[in-house]
Design goal:
The chain is mostly helical and 690 residues long. The chain folds into two domains: 433 residues, no CATH class; 246 residues, Serine Threonine Protein Phosphatase 5, Tetratricopeptide repeat (Alpha Horseshoe). The chain is built from 32 helices and no strands. It starts with a helix and ends with a helix.
């Protein structure tokens, strides 16, 4: 009761922190969707509104990220919309609510941890409670996490934090009950905390698998050195549970990462990556050091979402920061382990961070750098300084002289002043960053300024300037970069578009565009989107080089690029675009041939039906029927792939008869349209024989 009476002001302070965080993020709520939002969220309406149980199952199994497809994260988007397009405000508001809940859970976990460690010291419990509130405030209002919270699709990174904290809380309570002799209740909470929350977190994103390893960090760095030892029998029983629920899953994750490393070194990584796995492993220490710099030296504006300017390390000396960064990371790991008994909070914060980074910053061939990868690992990063500012000396023992010095009123005043001023300063930085996220135009220009060597940042800014009616500025931005990076397709195609908007594409830009398409690595959906827009506008081109002949020449160059066509599905995209060009010319026979070749790459219902529907919509229903016949032949020959969410989704659609219904409807429409055309015996017989 005494402790409760002395800690309630800390909980009031937490409410004030949550309110202040809400105000700091408020300007960002008016922002728009960006980048991967447009790649992931349209699934809400890809097969019609999610307004029935059948539609819900189709939607939840439609994800392709990770083997699981992240269905729980996808389900969370239904809170905000059940069809597409949708208003971004609701999505961003929900992200902010999740961020606030995560901050509250972080505080709750640290309070529980402090009470467990300080069970016999009322004054220390009060101080550790205030430290928990301060840690939550520093984490909640750190400006680095604005790009996670305001980037709608990164809810997939925020939800694993929720289940990680919930799992740690349940595990901590179960551990306490088990060691106090309440075996059944304790075991139940251990199971709910580790396996159950690990599974839920993994259904949001694969790094949810790290929860058992993170629990082991807390167990062996904080709890065992700082809490009384239980009886041998009780400790043995608890160790068995820990072996099954934490050590075994952590070992499986370690084995998987090691296997990925072996495969990456012996067989290479995907063709879309311009580096080897060895180069990635050399680069990640530099990336981690930069993350730590941003965490401990916060800035109002960071690099944002553009990371293609990060140069891979090709040796320990190139770039020259590679070896120093590697040594810094190794030194931090060694220091945290060596000081775990004297400074457990410091050791726990660092080891928690590096374990939290172990999946996305090691052997899996992901992109080199993303800010949102710090969201979960940095949960404990500010706990040591919060303990020091709240004068919790007992948790991290210091020499007696420092202890006596720490009791001076002057130092205490300085500490408490900092404990108030630092969160307020972080809130101001977060407000500035959130305000930028609320202004798409200024955001694009600032990111381009902060990332002068990023093709993505410069192309994004150039697009913004073209939409604002200033293609001259876009061309001036891109032209110098193209001389430096002639194979960069994003710069080449956007410069082409800017000059075309100005009236004519210069011969050097035309040559650069063709050369870039012949040599580029896969730029994702950029080519399909850019060429699709070019073909749509070809009937009334803005410049002479935007007609169908020029578009076809560029597509031929892309098809000659072996690096590009090695990526699954990319040849299909390009051949499909060639078919659209043939249709725009009125050459249905050539369009059908192009569509058939595209379909042979990956015979899937969505592409087959969209191609057949396009043939019918442009006055060629017979060719559409022939294309459907080709699809059915290809589908009969296709073998099912290994299990994944993609194969489960295909099974769901087959079980529901979704594609069969779509096929019957489309065939009926095309047949009706074909019967209204003048009779062409040869073609009609060919279609009927098919």
């Amino acid at each position: 009761m005494i402790v409760r009476n002395r800690t309630w002001p800390a909980y009031v302070a937490l409410l004030i922190v949550l309110a202040l965080c809400t105000l700091a993020y408020r300007p960002g709520l008016r922002g728009d969707f960006v980048f991967d939002d447009y790649a992931n969220l349209p699934a809400l309406g890809a097969m019609g509104p999610v307004n029935s149980s059948a539609a819900l199952v189709r939607y939840l199994t439609s994800g392709s990220a990770d083997p699981t497809g992240r269905p729980l994260a996808m389900a969370s988007f239904l809170i905000d919309a059940r069809d597409w397009p949708a208003d971004p405000y609701s999505f961003k508001r929900t992200n902010l609510i999740i961020h606030l809940v995560n901050g509250a859970l972080l505080c709750w976990f640290l309070v529980a941890l402090g009470r467990l460690i300080r069970r016999d010291d009322e004054q220390a419990i009060v101080r550790s409670t205030w430290a928990a509130v301060l840690t939550s405030a520093l984490w909640l209002m750190h400006p680095l996490f604005v790009s996670t919270t305001m980037y709608v699709v990164q809810r997939e990174a925020m939800l694993p934090a929720f289940f990680t904290l919930a799992g740690l809380l349940l595990w901590l309570r179960g551990r306490t009950l088990l060691l106090d002799g309440r075996h059944c209740a304790g075991a139940l909470l251990l199971i709910l905390g580790l396996p159950a929350c690990t599974a839920l977190g993994t259904l949001c994103k694969a790094n949810g698998l790290l929860l058992p390893a993170l629990a082991l960090v807390i167990e062996y760095v904080v709890l065992r050195p700082c809490t009384p030892k239980p009886s041998p029998a009780t400790d043995k029983r608890y160790r068995r549970w820990l072996l099954m629920l934490a050590w075994a899953p952590a070992f499986v994750v370690f084995a998987y990462l090691s296997y990925q490393g072996f495969i990456g070194i012996t067989h290479g990584v995907a063709a879309i990556r311009p580096w080897t796995l060895g180069q990635r492993l050399l680069t990640e220490p530099r990336v981690l050091c930069d993350y730590l710099r941003l965490l401990w030296l916060p800035q109002p504006y960071s690099a944002g979402l553009f990371n293609d300017q990060v140069r891979a390390s090709v040796s320990l000396w190139s770039p020259r920061t590679t070896l120093p960064s590697l040594l810094v990371v190794l030194a931090l790991l060694v220091a945290s382990w060596q000081t775990r008994h004297r400074h457990p909070a410091f050791a726990a914060a660092l080891l928690f961070y590096f374990v939290g980074q172990s999946m996305e910053s090691s052997t899996i061939a992901l992109e080199l750098y993303f800010e949102h990868r710090n969201y979960v690992p940095a949960l404990l990063m500010f706990w040591p300084i919060a303990l020091w500012l709240c004068d919790d000396k007992g948790f991290s023992p210091m020499p007696n002289a420092l202890v006596r010095k720490a009791t001076s009123k002057t130092l205490l005043t300085i500490k408490y002043t900092l404990a108030i001023c630092i969160p307020l300063a972080l809130a101001a930085l977060t407000w500035a960053n959130a305000d930028l996220w609320g202004n798409t135009h200024d955001q694009a220009l600032l990111w381009a300024e902060r990332n002068p060597h990023s093709p993505r940042a410069q192309a994004y800014a150039a697009n913004t300037e073209m939409l604002a009616g200033r293609p001259d500025r876009a061309a001036s931005r891109l032209a110098p970069l193209l001389d430096e990076q002639p194979a960069e397709v994003q710069i080449a195609l956007n410069l082409f578009a800017a000059e075309c908007q100005m009236g004519s594409v210069s011969p050097p830009t035309w040559r650069h565009a063709r050369e870039a398409l012949r040599t580029t690595r896969d730029p994702g959906t950029l080519l399909a989107n850019w060429f699709g827009h070019l073909i749509d506008e070809a009937s009334q081109p803005q410049c002479p080089q935007a007609d169908l002949d020029h578009a076809q020449a560029l597509l031929r160059d892309a098809l000659d690029n072996k690096l590009l066509t090695a990526v699954p599905g990319r040849s299909q995209d390009l051949l499909n675009l060639l078919g659209r060009i043939s249709l725009s010319r009125g050459d249905a026979k050539q369009a059908l041939e192009d569509f058939d070749r595209a379909l042979a790459e990956q015979p899937r219902e969505p592409i087959a039906f969209s191609q057949a529907a396009l043939l019918g919509a442009t006055g060629h229903p017979r060719e559409g029927l022939a294309h459907l016949a080709t699809f059915e032949q290809l589908r009969a020959q296709e073998r099912p792939g290994p299990w994944s969410m993609v194969t489960l989704h295909a099974w769901v659609l087959k079980r529901q008869g979704y594609w069969e219904h779509e096929l019957a409807t489309l065939r009926a429409t095309l047949t009706e349209d074909a019967s209204a055309l003048p009779s062409q015996p040869n073609e009609t017989n060919k279609v009927h024989s098919s």
